[in-house]
Design a protein that fits this description.
By secondary structure, the protein is of the alpha/beta class. The protein is built from 13 helices and 16 strands. It is about 40% helix and about 20% strand. The termini are far apart. The radius of gyration is 20 Å and the shape is globular. The strands form three sheets. Strands 1, 2, 3, 4, 5, 6, 7, 8, 9, 10, 13 and 15 form a twelve-stranded mixed β-sheet that branches. The protein binds guanosine-5'-diphosphate-alpha-D-mannose and magnesium ion. Guanosine-5'-diphosphate-alpha-D-mannose (GDD) binds near residues 66, 222, 271 and 317. Magnesium ion binds near residues 172, 174 and 315.
Length: about 400
């Protein structure tokens, strides 16, 4: 793969925020002599280097009642050397969609000779492991893991730790193009290969997000992302004193982290999760608030934003979903960050009123539900309980 070099990096305390880097060539040929200094604006990342990172990476796929054909397409796009971890919250009554996902994954693993894990979000052993390790805020009144994409992602990252991976990448299950899934993972690996810190994150920016209505229109950015980016940048500007537009991926569902970084972050429920991850990094390592962890501060936290070539086409869920499930929680995450200044707060309220989500000026957005960082729970206990049952989550497990 050949991508643009990091031409510009902004700093927020010990956080290094890299400007968007474009993918120029999906396949850059055989390993050869390094690029000459003339080509230094571009970086060639050798296939073998990418494979080394894929080997250390778990790809987590959160899924809830998606079309089986889409799910099958997504798993087929994950490079062979990555470990697939599916966390499903799909229905099990009447039509057992979870069972269908498990069967599809199992058949796929059988024929492709690879291993994968699949677990239901409401799995009782998972709930017990969370309860006994002290992660009780993740559990509902029924004692099981709460609904939500973020909640599934946390389960996946705990499992990836248990399975001794070093990186975790997230890919949604409703993606129409297996080729784009493949490219996201290559971009994750490319980003990690450029990192100089073990605390790193790669966030994907889609080159186009087509809309089919009628005919196809190749939009650059999602509607929600544009708005969230603006307020995250406003928060950074207020804290550093320098206006910035560096963040272009505030809602990036497709993103990856080193597990060392993932262990240190706090998470916000459901779709506020990606925005909150950034805020958690700025709060913990930006140098304005007390530092979250000194080793990470010493190395610095590195954020890469990579623009991929494939258009991103996924399930359309309508305006109400975009506004109340995504925009409101994302902006609430910014509004309630300890780093958020008064101007940004006021502008967020104005934005939410203009969008018809809040009714009047005095109204405040509802605060997000925040989950503690995984490093604060008893990970040994979690692993002890889950290890006993691990084989049953393997896609190749027999009933
Ligand atoms: N495990 C689990 N549990 N998965 C879930 C749940 C749940 O409760 N709810 C949704 N999912 C899965 C979906 O099946 C899909 O694979 C993925 O999570 C994302 O959900 P979507 O409903 O497709 O989200 P979206 O398309 O509106 O938003 C996506 O893109 C945004 C950026 O544009 C998400 O990735 C957002 O988090 C992201 O901000
Ligand atoms: Mg989607």
């Amino acid at each position: 793969m050949r991508i643009e070099t990091q031409r510009y990096t902004e700093r927020f305390g010990s956080v290094r925020l890299n400007e968007v880097q474009k993918v120029l060539e999906l396949d850059s040929g055989r390993a050869g002599a390094p690029d000459s200094p003339k080509e230094i604006a571009l970086l060639k990342i050798e296939e073998e280097v990418i494979k080394d990172y894929e080997d250390k990476m778990a790809i987590a796929i959160p899924v809830k009642d998606e079309k089986l054909q889409l799910f099958e397409g997504v798993i087929s796009g994950v490079p062979h050397d990555c470990l697939i971890i599916v966390v499903s919250n799909s229905q099990r009554k009447r039509i057992n969609r979870f069972r269908m996902e498990r069967d599809a994954l199992s058949q796929y693993c059988h024929f492709t000779r690879r291993s994968a894990y699949i677990i239901h979000q409401k799995d009782p052993v998972l709930a017990k492991a969370l309860a006994e390790s002290g992660y009780t805020e993740l559990l509902g009144e029924d004692g099981l893991l709460l609904n939500g994409k973020c909640e599934g992602m946390i389960a996946a990252l705990l499992l990836a730790t248990l399975l001794k991976k070093s990186y975790i990448g997230f890919i949604d299950a409703d993606n129409y193009f297996p080729g784009s899934v493949w490219e996201y993972v290559k971009a994750y690996a490319a980003g990690f290969s450029l990192a100089t810190s073990p605390y790193s994150m790669v966030r994907i920016l889609w080159r186009y997000k087509p809309k089919v209505s009628p005919g196809m229109y190749f939009r650059k950015l999602g509607r929600v992302s544009e708005i969230t980016n603006k307020y995250v940048n406003s928060l950074i500007s207020a804290n550093t004193g320098f206006e910035t537009e560096i963040i272009r991926t505030a809602n990036a569902g497709e993103h990856a982290m080193s597990l060392r970084l993932a262990q240190l972050l706090t998470y916000a429920s459901s779709y506020a999760v990606e925005t909150r991850e950034l805020l958690s990094i700025f709060e913990g390592f930006g140098g304005v608030l007390p530092l979250a962890q000194h080793t990470a501060v010493k190395h610095g936290v590195e954020i890469f934003q990579i623009e991929t070539r494939n258009p991103h086409l996924h399930e359309e869920r309508g305006t109400k979903h975009l506004q109340t499930d995504m925009l409101l929680p994302s902006l609430s995450a910014v509004y309630y960050s300890q780093l958020c200044d008064e101007d940004t707060r006021e502008n967020i309220v104005k934005e939410l009123i203009a969008q018809g989500i809040l009714k009047q000026k005095k109204e405040e957005p509802p605060p997000p539900v925040i989950y503690r960082a995984p490093c604060e729970i008893n990970l040994e206990k979690f692993q002890e309980i889950m290890s006993e049952n691990l084989a049953s989550y393997s896609a190749l497990a027999k009933d």
